[in-house]
Amino acid sequence: MALNHQPFHQKYRPTKFDELIGQDFIALTLKQALLTNKIAPAYLFCGPRGTGKTSSARILAKSLNCLKHNEPNPSPCNYCELCKNINNGLALDIIEIDAASNTGVENIREIIEKANFAPTQARWKVYVIDECHMLSTAASNALLKTIEEPPERVVFILATTNPERVLQTIQSRCQKFDFKRINTEHIYKHLLNIANKESIHFEDSGIKLIAKRSNGGMRDAQRLLDQLSLAPNGITKNNVENLLGEVSEVDLIKVFNSLINNVPESLIKTCSELYDDGNEPIAILEGLLNITRDLLLKTVQDDYTDLFYTSKEFQTELDKMSNLISKSKIIDWHCYLKNLEYQIKNSGQPRLWLEINLTSLLDLENKKGIDYNKDGKTSRFNSDRDNNSKNQKDLISEVKNIRPKEKIIVNEVIQNNQEQSIVINQINKTVDDESINLKEKWALILSKLELPSTRMLLSQQAELMGIQSNIVEIGLSPNWENMIKSRKVVIESAVKKIFGEQMSIKFLPKSDNKFKLTNVNKDPSDNDSNAIITNNLTHSNTSNNNPRSEKLNDLNNHKTLDESSSKNLADFFNGEIIDNHE
């Protein structure tokens, strides 16, 4: 009978502290503790997956109990019966527990009772509790006394990927070691070593790509290497991209060339081909964001480094594109693309949504009335300024036909109106910018809410009032205040996902007094400056019925929306009863 295949992450698991990759300081500290015989009663190993937490726990257990040595030694032999049993997970005195399936107080009580018995084979009894953050609060509290003062020759090693979920009382009783993500270069060298030992055909670019995409986890890198070694042509860059579901850089170049050259037909055709080849819209979006990031990096750094997400072979094309596109346009594209992920994921037609948004990038900076600032927010101040300038020119042309006595008054009025226009434009610009910013942040908060009913309720009956220090202020409609407050925990969780764990929320009455100052020269059909001029001319020369003044007076008679009607409409949507019999 053929033996089962042993995965690379098990076959090449480190067996000594000297073989532990990327955790030099932790290995040095634990070796020193073994040499000086200063063994702590409990250890807490924290860090991302695949960084060596469980391997270090097994090495420490072997170092304490290796039969070749009469006392703890940092270099276990790995050949004695006890070392072999620990490597295979068969040692009776080395108990590995999965906290995810042993979360209750009863499980911890059983551990505490067995810990009082002396070891049967080894010198030290070692309990390795993996994913200890999954223990219930009651189970963690039950373990406190035993961890602080364990029986003689008993060591507890707790491992977790989420140390923030471990009780502070547990952490304070343990020696804590933070395992960091492994450097890409270290992973690359280790994968080369494995590939050579296993006689695997590989391309150097393929191994480098695996090392980059493993995100600092050695186990993920070894798993990918093991899986790709089954390919008939070995480990190639193309095989790695296909396995990870990534879009090839060649196809992404076509998309970007279509964008740079403003060719919508080519853009849609390329997107269609990518989709038909099995590429997901999210994968295409991620690839485009990676290239915009590298293009931005290319504007300040010519030499290729590990900072670039794309491969070294792609640098020639990256140089060509960076010469055809400005830095500001790269930032505009980056800001526009980063907000599409949620929309594509929640769309019934992600392919269509992606194509529409990509075609929107064509001539983005030339779209009338829209500017994209460094934060990616749109504003329409340019169009307002254009309209104001046109109105001002029209006003001046009208003034030229007025009699000399009236010109003195008109010039004074125009000067005053220009000063007012500058002030009001500045105020409106600030109000608009803050309003747009708050609306975007509020939309982002709503997108993080899982329940559609809560999202719908808040979108209609609440609004983001402002962000002060670590407090997010949310305005509520009076009739829905109690219902929204009952969902405070859910809303606060969504806020923390975006702005950080330090943030809290504060509910306020919904503001109804938001306003925007009317620009002096906002619209030719409703020109306040013309109205002011007309009033002055009328007072200065009431006997003269100037047809032009009469026309301006008629335009000035247009009224704004009735305030009481607007208030009634708002009250209606807030659930209030409207009485029209006044």
Description:
The protein has 26 helices and ten strands. It has 582 residues and is α/β, with parallel strands linked by helices. The protein folds into four domains: 171 residues, 3-Layer(aba) Sandwich (Rossmann fold); 61 residues, Orthogonal Bundle (Helicase, Ruva Protein, domain 3); 119 residues, Zinc Finger, Delta Prime, domain 3; 127 residues, DnaA, N-terminal domain (GMP Synthetase, Chain A, domain 3), CATH 3.30.300. α3 packs antiparallel against α4, α9 runs antiparallel to α10 and α14 packs antiparallel against α16. The C terminus is likely disordered.
Mean pLDDT: 78
Low-confidence stretches: 367-385, 402-407, 427-431, 512-582
> Count of DSSP E strands?
10
As a percent range, the share of strand residues is: 5-15%
N- to C-terminal separation?
94 Å
Tally of individual helices: 26
